[in-house]
Amino acid sequence: MESDLVPFAHTPIPHLKQFTLVNQTPQIKALMTILRNKDTPRRDFVFYSDRLFRILMEEGLAHLPFSEEIVETPTGAKYTGLKFESKICGVSIIRAGESMENALRQICPHCRIGKILIQRSEDGLAIPKLFYTKVPKDISTRQVLLLDPMLATGGSAIVAIEELIKLGVPENRILFLNLLATPEGVDTVLSRFPSMRVCSICLDERLNEQKYIIPGLGDFGDRYFGTD
Ligand code: URA
């Protein structure tokens, strides 16, 4: 069962129960192929990233708690269904995570969105530093969707998650959403915070010496915001 979920059998992920890979349909593969292509123009890169983010947000919301709700349909019949049990809050890791905010707003219009600014060193080797946090006052009572399209080493994510925990968010109410993850990044994050969850569109092979994801798609922020 587990090997069905992990496309790279040589890099198993120990905390697999807490990691969800979006169903690898041909549609997902086709959209990701556009993003991975170095010749894709920025307009298309943004358009197809946004489509994938909406798919990712729907998948993410499906992992949050629900409770029973009974409604009456126009036929007069009763229907026993479900409703979302808790309030949610998106928290984007600036800058690339901000690209995911619109997709969350589109499917969850009243959702609060906080921000965390973390600076990585250019070589990716030093420990990332936290510079700024702005989140709703009641964040500790919310389900938190942490947003960053690229889970590479997991260094920035660890700083962001530590900050959320310091603000009173229970670890098991944090769901980290990414477009691309590496086995190393998922393992680093879930080893440190074993009761949170990670959900990604793709699990890539590895990091190179410059800490870029391979095969990857290059620098996501630069391609999305046009700063390359
Ligand atoms: N961040 C990116 O934008 N790309 C990578 O490959 C790794 C981290």
Automatic annotation (TrEMBL):
<keyword id="KW-0328">Glycosyltransferase</keyword>
<dbReference type="Pfam" id="PF14681">
    <property type="entry name" value="UPRTase"/>
</dbReference>
<dbReference type="InterPro" id="IPR029057">
    <property type="entry name" value="PRTase-like"/>
</dbReference>
<feature type="domain" description="Phosphoribosyltransferase">
    <location>
        <begin position="22"/>
        <end position="227"/>
    </location>
</feature>
<dbReference type="InterPro" id="IPR000836">
    <property type="entry name" value="PRTase_dom"/>
</dbReference>
<dbReference type="GO" id="GO:0004845">
    <property type="term" value="F:uracil phosphoribosyltransferase activity"/>
</dbReference>
<keyword id="KW-0808">Transferase</keyword>
<protein>
    <submittedName>
        <fullName>Uracil phosphoribosyltransferase</fullName>
        <ecNumber>2.4.2.9</ecNumber>
    </submittedName>
</protein>
